[in-house]
Write a structure and sequence with these properties.
Helices cover 40% and strands 13% of the residues. It has 9 helices and 6 strands; from the N terminus they run βααβαβαααβααββα.
């Protein structure tokens, strides 16, 4: 049996402020730190034995991984980072409050920007200070690889080559594999692994800091998936993600 564990980073400071984050590099909130530590304890208690982990180029995912591995006494294992695991780029929405944006553009439009398959937000301009070309971490990427905005479709297009050439082969070689990333990059992977439709992925939400386990047979045929933790608590967390753009 092979087990792939997906963990969305713990709550970030911009999650707490209900802002679109995307490729903006923000750190974890105090709650996010606690979520990451709790996730590490759960994975240790469940007997997971990681020798390799993957994460994005963004601090909130990297710190979540560090905290989990520390709880598991596994900070020594190999960690591979890729920009292909970054969150969806939210274009001009990055930094804006989700409820205020919904008030301005309408909740239906914001839901499409957040969760639809192929409707991206408005792109950044070349000289926008939020353009990733101004960051050293992306210096090796080509102009074609650097997004100015993205839909889930485009996240899938940049993620799938990494899954097929890097993560999937590693899963063949490891019984347990850990990926710590972001809501939309993980949704992209889940859509592929479960062969979900566009309609199904629209309503699928991943809570922060909760281990999400996929089990496969030795030929990597999908067997089952499940979250680790209290089902009622996880359901409430998923509903909270879904309602981020709704007025209280």
């Amino acid at each position: 049996m092979k087990r792939l564990v997906l963990v969305r980073h713990g709550q970030s400071v911009w999650n707490k402020e209900n802002r679109f984050t995307g490729w903006k590099d923000v750190t974890l909130s105090d709650q996010g730190i606690s979520e990451a530590i709790k996730a590490g304890k759960i994975l240790k208690d469940e007997g997971f034995n990681f020798k390799l982990a993957y994460t994005s180029y963004l601090t909130r995912a990297i710190k979540t991984l560090w905290l989990m591995l520390e709880e598991m006494d596994s900070m020594w294992i190999e960690v591979r980072k890729s920009w292909r695991l970054n969150e969806k780029h939210y274009g001009t929405l990055q930094g804006l409050n989700k409820i205020e944006t919904a008030d301005k553009y309408g909740a239906e439009m914001v839901q499409l920007w957040r969760r639809s398959f192929d409707t991206p937000p408005e792109p950044l301009t070349a000289d926008d200070e939020r353009n990733p070309r101004f960051e050293a971490r992306y210096a090796d990427l080509t102009a074609a690889e650097l997004p100015m905005t993205e839909s889930l479709k485009e996240v899938i297009e940049r993620l799938m080559p990494y899954w097929e050439t890097e993560i999937m082969p590693a899963l063949h070689e490891n019984d347990d594999l850990l990926v710590t990333a972001h809501g939309n990059s993980l949704r992209a992977l889940v859509m592929h692994l479960k062969n979900m439709s566009r309609e199904e992925i629209l309503g699928f939400n991943i809570p922060t800091g909760v281990p999400y386990v996929f089990e496969f047979d030795d030929d990597l045929n999908f067997v089952k998936d499940y979250f680790l933790g209290d089902p009622d608590e996880i359901k409430a967390l998923m509903d909270k993600v879904a309602n981020q753009a709704k007025a209280k």
